[in-house]
Structure formats: C-alpha cells, structure tokens
Amino acid sequence: MATTDNPAEPIPAVPLDYTVCYSTMHQGPCSTATFNYDGSYDTTVKVLDVAKMNLRSNHIEDKPMIQALYDQSDRVNDLAFHPNGMVLATCSADRQIKLYDMMRPKVKWSIQHFQDSHPVLAISFHPSGDFLAAAAQSAPSIRLFDVKTFQGYTASRNPDDQHTSGGIRQVRFADNGSHMVTAGDDDAIKVWDIVSGSCVKTLEKAHGGNGVSTAQFSRNGKYILSSGRDSSAKLWETTSGKLVHTFKGAAHTKFHVPAAFNYNESLVFSIDEDRHHVCYWDSKTGAFVGQWAGKC
Questions:
Q1: Which of 157, 191, 230, 259 has the highest CB neighbour number within 10 Å of its CB?
Q2: pLDDT tens per residue across span 74-89
Q3: How far are the Cα atoms of 97, 106, 138, 272 from residue 163, in angstroms, in the given order?
Q4: C-alpha–C-alpha distance, residues 75 and 109, integer Å
Q5: What DSSP character marks residue 53?
Q6: Does the pTM exceed 0.85?
Q7: Could you name the CATH architecture of 30-254?
Q8: Which pLDDT band holds residue 5 (cuts at 50, 70, 90)?
C-alpha cells in the first residue's frame, strides 16, 4: 500500500528488532492490546501510561498502570477511547457496553452502560464522538448508540444490506467519519454510508468462505485491511473492491486473529497461532518481511 497518491518505486521494508519495555499480567488469556487500550479474558481492563512503560523503571512511583477496571461480568472483547480521550468504552460477552471516566483514575466502575440483546464483539466511536457503533454475535446489522441520550437503533433494516449468517466480528469507522466497515462470519466485508445508514459496497467470499475476523480502513480511507480464518490478511481498494495484496505465512484457522497496520502503515502485522509468532509484511509490496517469536 502506498501512503501517497503517486508512489515512487517501493522501498523494501527492513526487518525490525524490539525491546520489551514493560510486562503486565492478567489472570486469564489477553484477548486484545494496542496503544490506548488493553483487554483480557478475565473480565478486567488495565489502562497503562506509555511514557512510564518506556522508562523500564523498577521504582514503585514509575509503575505505568493508571487504572484497573472491573465492571464487566464476562470476557472483554473490545475497547475504544472516545475522541476526547476522557471516556473509555468496553464491550463484553455479558451483552453490555460500559463507559468509564478516565478523569477519575481511582474509580473502578462504569459511569454508564448500554444493554444489547447479544454478546458484543466489537465497538468503535465515530470521530465526532456523538455515537458508538457496536457489532454483536448472531446479529446481522450494526447497532448505533447515541452517546448523549443513550438511545440505540439499527443502522439498516434492509435485508439486502445485512450480513447473511453468523454475526459481525468487527466494526471500524473511517478517519473522516463518512463510512464504516464491518467484518462478518458470513465471509463478507461491508462498507456503510454513515449519512444514509445503507451498505454501499459488499466484498463477498473475502476469505475463501472461512469468515472475516477483522476489517479496518487505512488512514486515507482508500484501502481496507482485513484478516480471516483462511490464514491470510488482505488489502483491498475501498472504492473498487479490488484485492491489492494477500499477506500469507501466518496460520490462523482456530481463532479470530486480527491484522493491523504499524504507525505509518508501511507494515502489516498479524499472528501465527501455531508457532506463537508475530509476523509482518511490507504493505506496499505484500512481501513477507520478518517475525517475532513469543507467546501470544
């Protein structure tokens, strides 16, 4: 993938090295982690200070954990910070979405919650911060919740717009707020127009009939990065639906393993569930670059 409209000849990515700055433990397997959030199977959420993590200090005052949140009664599936940075949302298999006040670090319980009829698998705040999208197990369409009124509604009730079977594994907004993308157990990737609430593009059989685990837009909105249970990550053109690259070399058939860009979108990362490696590829060429051994 190119970061400019008229890219020059791609420069091959260089294998990376890394240093562990900080390690923290949950009582159960960790299900998700990224900058600004961390969730786990043990129903807790830990909020960490990145600057203090980088210090690698043994002093108690330098410990990076800011908050530990305990208000979910089942495993935490996804987390999202409100654009203002002051509210954290979590979703869980307990069918609830909880909101936490990040300005009150000593408070371990939610300030508000949304109730869903199904286990909630993924959430995403609209860039405006006015509403929250939720993807649920066994639900064919996205739920949207008004953050101010706490009212919820379905994005589209048109059967032609909805995912056909299973549930929706992930939902993510484009950075400009004009569209959202969903990944479904029906092996479809759908792009939705926010104003009309309708599906404007469907990529069917995106991962060979095995189901799509995750999908997200690139920062400029021109591309979609997806992962599926066919042991591949894929890069698509948003407008045309054309497949740009297939990133192979990391096995994921048992679990819903995500794919993600690095900070400047020059690399794509995913996990090999058999070898417990983090694998990464050049997003511009699709070439495999390297891997990190570890437990995941």
A1: 259
A2: 788 999 999 998 898 9
A3: 22, 41, 10, 27
A4: 16
A5: H
A6: no
A7: 7 Propeller (2.130)
A8: very low
